[in-house]
Amino acid sequence: MIILITGATHTGKTFLAKKLIGKYNYPCMSIDHLKMGLIRSGMTDLTPMDDDKLTDYLWPVVREMIKTAIENGQDMIIEGCYVPHNWQQDFDDQYQSSIRFICLAFSDDYIEKHFDDIKDKESVVEKRLYDDCTMESIKADNQTFRQRFGQAVTLIEDDYEQAIDSVLND
């Protein structure tokens, strides 16, 4: 089984991955680590701010890693925001039946009520060396993910822990 986690900024993709590692004992790959390895090694001129270009650059590699893991009967958690909205078109039914897709996004109301909590927990799993997010930027990113992924989004509206627990117990 491949568990593919994506979502908007600050929604807890890495936090959820860590919980799923504990539950299933699957290995995990962070697309952010892949991104930074390629950037820091000079393998690309892209920067961490080039989100759409990074998705186009990283997804073909991630997609083929997923296919290889499925073909070899290997389980893996892959998490990061660089998953295209039309990711499913890259996998036929044989592959799709082995992929559990999770997309996390906050509602605008949740962001307004819990912005301080969101900021306080932004480095709970991985240290953010630079983060200039604002309520407006978090809202915009979450709106983008809600629009791109529609019904596939796990929408966090009230209770964060309850939303994460529902994903864990699916």
Write a short abstract of this structure.
The chain is of the alpha/beta class. It is 49% helix and 15% strand.
How would you describe the overall organization of this protein?
With 170 residues, the chain is α/β, with parallel strands linked by helices. Helices cover 49% and strands 15% of the residues. It is built from seven helices and five strands. The chain has helices spanning 13-24, 31-40, 51-71, 93-96, 108-120, 135-149, 160-168; strands at residues 2-7, 28-30, 76-79, 99-106, 153-156. Strands 2-3-1-4-5 form a five-stranded parallel beta sheet, sandwiched between helices. Helix 5 crosses helix 6.
**What is the succession of H and E elements?**
EHEHHEHEHHEH
- Helix-strand makeup class: alpha/beta
> In whole angstroms, how far apart are the ends?
14 Å
> Beta-sheet strand percentage?
5-15%
Give the low-pLDDT segments.
none
Quickly count the helices. 7
Helix content percent band: 40-55%
What average pLDDT do the residues reach? 92
Shape: globular
Q: Sketch the major β-sheet.
A: 5 strands, parallel
What is the count of β-strands? 5
Radius of gyration: 16 Å
Instruction: Record the strand order, biggest sheet.
Output: 2-3-1-4-5
Describe the protein's topology.
Blueprint lengths: L1 E6 L5 H12 L3 E3 H10 L10 H21 L4 E4 L13 H4 L2 E8 L1 H13 L14 H15 L3 E4 L3 H9 L2
Parallel strand pairs: 1-3, 1-4, 2-3, 4-5
Helix pairs in contact: 5-6
State the main characteristics:
alpha/beta; 5 strands; five-stranded parallel β-sheet; globular; 170 residues; single chain
